[in-house]
Amino acid sequence: MKTVLKTQNSLLLKSRLRELGAEVVGIADMSLYDREVLGFGEDIRPRFPFAISFGLLVPKGVLSTLTDGPTLFYLHHYRQVNYRLDTIAYEYAKEIEQMGYAALPFAASQMVDWQNQKGHISHKHVGVLAGIGWVGRNNLLVHRDFGGARAEKGLRTEERRGRREDGGGGRKTEVGGWRIHVRT
Question: What is the pTM of this model?
Answer without folding.
Answer: 0.76
